[in-house]
UniProtKB/TrEMBL annotation:
Gene Ontology biological-process annotations: DNA recombination; DNA repair
Record carries keyword Hydrolase: yes
The reaction(s) this protein catalyses: ATP + H2O = ADP + phosphate + H(+); Couples ATP hydrolysis with the unwinding of duplex DNA by translocating in the 3'-5' direction
CDD domains recorded: DEXHc_RecG, RecG_wedge_OBF, SF2_C_RecG
Keywords: ATP-binding, DNA damage, DNA recombination, DNA repair, DNA-binding, Helicase, Hydrolase, Isomerase, Nucleotide-binding
Function (record text): Plays a critical role in recombination and DNA repair. Helps process Holliday junction intermediates to mature products by catalyzing branch migration. Has replication fork regression activity, unwinds stalled or blocked replication forks to make a HJ that can be resolved. Has a DNA unwinding activity characteristic of a DNA helicase with 3'-5' polarity.
Family: Belongs to the helicase family. RecG subfamily.
Signal peptide region: none
Name of the protein this chain belongs to: ATP-dependent DNA helicase RecG
Enzyme class: isomerase
Length: 692
């Protein structure tokens, strides 16, 4: 199914063009069609075969067919409800046609004696074979049939198929269909010309099976998908080159602070961490801004890598800032960094919306003066009063939680003069390779593919909600044996208030069922001080059980917690389930994650739970997540600046993506006119922000 681009257009709503008035242009704009050129790439969802007639007696129930005959009767009946009923006869038999919603004009069209063609699905009815709401039009006897399959396009309210077909046919005749692909590439990939591919998809001959077209593996479809991928790759490569042309501070200090930190740590870096630290360090020493994505599974040690990068900035005389999406995660980062860096004499400022005005203003003043080199915070970091005059490095944790503009805003805090700060984005949601090549191709990517020693595998169990009492008993036994546990309340997207109520109800129920345990409650509506106090008590072992909403999804590190219960696990996404499960297994004790689910399970819910049950590897889970959800949902807010793919499928068309990536770079370098024309055809005014 075609996916209309969700990217914002830079242009105003279309005002129309010859043959298209403002009202029609407004409806077309809802489909992201703003010019005749856009009509060319508005491709059919499916096709109907109106190239042949089926005798009425041969029409099979359950299958679409086109019949032609004479109207023998037409009347409005009132039972069992008001409807228009007509009978059509050909030499082989009679068919009933019914319309539950109709206009007087349809009744006139179906006057007895008129000859008509009907297209619809035949089914058995009370009066024999019938069609309900078939498409109908008058014909003369012997009138020629169409020579191509009839396209059915994605549409919107008030925009009929006939109008779309007329406009698209006009565009096919009037718009240039230049082919910008090198002939050698077309031959190597066995792709037809652009004009041939487009005409075939809009008007396929009847000998091409509709099924071959609808599964999008016909050579014409592969040509269109390749060109879409190519335009995207050119756009990303251009963004990458534009960034390389900017100037960044050269962060090449002595390395003294990093060495001192490593010498004081109670653990050694893994091989993967050492490799990634070297990659980032080399980037920071360059005079153009780093834009690197650091991917690492839950618990792979991204924070220490970020700390070493930030110290490299401080060592070179610059500031660094780390932004996290939630206050719990930001505060944990601040506490961890402060503990590591205080012995080195490096101060870390803590900025969150909840801090008192006096403390906040004092931190702001010290950051603005350059007295404090490091800042950690939530979205509060990008609010206006925050000034970081010597910002050399911006770090964004859980980067997919922030939009492009938010990441840009953090960078701009340090846009002193002509220098652009380096940017390190971190994600514990691994990006599958095809997605990294496509939607993240403008970034350099580092991967932490090795877990530090001491992480224990987490045993995952799927348990029906009907066995809740057994789960409560398991929690009691584990906590009385000296371990700690999390109980995560269900995700209720429609209402934060409902989610809060569920958390409070669950807390009350568990307090009643487990009077021998000390139980805490954490949710998004708590005052930050209360939230911090509860988390600190849990981390210190003063609480046995923590009942929480998803605020504990990331950043919480309590090694003694070895049991997690996730209620209504079927409501959570795969990445979120994997993140939550990663809160246990941080100590030496065997850890268990119980996924409580309610029956009946949807097909998607069942598929998700099967994946999380069978996989512990975040990259394998991410690949399955991409397959289940598709790239649009998977990449989330990152796509604020880039149109999603409408036709190409990253799994099915991986071979085309490889070829598009190689050709995009070549065309930009050797044939900039062709590169610009392809981007104009596919992206128009939608190229968006050049990535944050």
């Amino acid at each position: 199914m075609a996916r209309a681009s969700t990217a914002p257009r830079g242009d105003a709503p279309a005002a129309g063009w010859p043959g298209v008035g403002a009202a029609l242009a407004g409806r077309l704009a809802k489909l992201d069609i703003r010019s005749p050129r856009d009509l060319l790439l508005h491709l059919p969802l499916r096709y109907e075969d109106e190239t042949r007639l089926t005798p009425i007696a041969a029409a099979r129930a359950g299958f679409p067919a086109q019949v032609e005959g004479e109207v023998t009767s037409c009347e409005v009946t009132l039972r069992p409800r008001r409807q228009l009923v007509a009978r059509i006869r050909d030499d082989s038999g009679t068919l009933v046609a019914r319309w539950l919603h109709f206009y007087p004009s349809q009744q006139k069209l179906l006057a007895p004696g008129r000859r008509v063609r009907l297209f619809g699905e035949v089914r058995g009815g009370f009066f024999g074979d019938e069609m309900v709401h078939p498409r109908v039009h008058p014909v003369a006897e012997g009138e020629a049939l169409p020579e191509a399959l009839t396209p059915v396009y994605p549409t919107t309210a008030g925009l009929g198929q006939a109008t779309l077909r007329r406009l698209i046919d006009q565009a096919l005749k009037s718009e240039p269909l230049d082919d910008w692909l090198p002939e050698a590439v077309r031959r190597r990939l066995d792709l037809p010309g652009f004009a041939d591919a487009l005409r075939l998809l809009h008007h396929p001959p009847p000998e091409v099976p509709a099924s071959v077209l609808e599964d999008r593996q016909h050579p014409a479809w592969r040509r269109i998908k390749f060109e879409e991928l190519l335009a995207q790759q050119i756009s990303l490569r251009r963004a990458y080159l534009a960034r390389r042309a900017k100037t960044a501070p050269v962060l090449a200090g002595s390395g003294r602070l990093a060495q001192a930190l490593l010498a004081g740590l109670p653990f050694a870096l893994t091989g993967a961490q050492r490799r990634v630290v070297a990659e980032i360090g080399a980037d920071l020493a360059q005079p153009h801004p780093m834009q690197r994505l650091l991917m690492g599974d839950v618990g792979s040690g991204k924070t220490i890598v970020a700390a070493l990068a930030m110290l490299q900035a401080v060592d070179a005389g610059y500031q660094a800032a780390l932004m996290a999406p939630t206050e719990i995660l930001a505060e944990q980062h601040w506490q961890k960094l402060s503990a590591w860096l205080a012995p080195l004499g490096v101060e870390v400022a803590w900025l969150a919306g909840s801090r008192g005005k006096r403390a906040r203003e004092a931190e702001l003043a010290r950051l603005a003066s350059g007295e404090v080199p490091l800042a950690v915070g939530t979205h509060a970091l990008i609010e206006d009063p925050v000034a970081l005059p010597r910002l050399g490095l911006a770090v964004v944790d859980e980067q997919h939680r922030f939009g492009v503009r938010q990441r840009l805003a953090l960078r701009e805090k340090g846009a002193a003069g002509t220098l652009s700060p380096h940017l390190l984005m971190m994600s514990a949601t691994p990006i599958p390779r095809t997605l990294a090549m496509s939607h993240y191709a403008d970034l350099d990517v580092s991967v932490l593919d090795e877990l530090p020693p001491g992480r224990t595998p987490v045993l995952t169990k799927l348990v029906s909600d009907a066995r809740r009492e057994e789960v409560v008993a398991r929690v009691r036994d584990g906590c009385l044996a000296g371990r700690q546990a999390y109980w995560v309340c269900p995700l209720i997207e429609e209402s934060e208030a409902l989610q809060l109520q569920t958390a409070q109800d669950t807390y009350a129920t568990l307090c009643e069922a487990l009077p021998e345990l000390r139980i805490g409650l954490v949710h998004g509506r708590l005052k930050p001080a209360e939230k911090s106090a509860t988390m600190a008590a849990f981390a210190a072992g003063e609480l046995h059980l923590l009942v929480a909403t998803t605020v504990i999804e990331v950043g919480v590190d309590v090694p003694n917690a070895s049991l997690m219960v996730i209620e209504h696990a079927e409501r959570f996404g795969l990445a979120q389930l994997h993140q939550l499960r990663g809160r246990v297994g941080r100590g030496s004790a065997e850890s268990v994650c119980i996924l409580l689910y309610a029956q009946p399970l949807s097909q998607t819910g069942r598929a998700r739970l099967k994946v999380i049950f069978e996989n512990a590897d975040g990259f394998a889970i991410a690949r399955e997540d991409l397959r289940i959800r598709g790239p649009g949902e998977f990449v989330g807010a990152r796509q604020s600046g880039l149109p999603l793919l409408r036709y190409a499928d990253l799994e099915v068309d991986a071979d085309l993506l490889e070829a598009a990536r190689a050709l995009g770079e070549t065309l930009l370098r050797d044939e900039p006119q062709a590169a610009a024309a392809l981007m104009a055809r596919w992206l128009g005014g939608r190229e968006g922000l050049l990535r944050a």
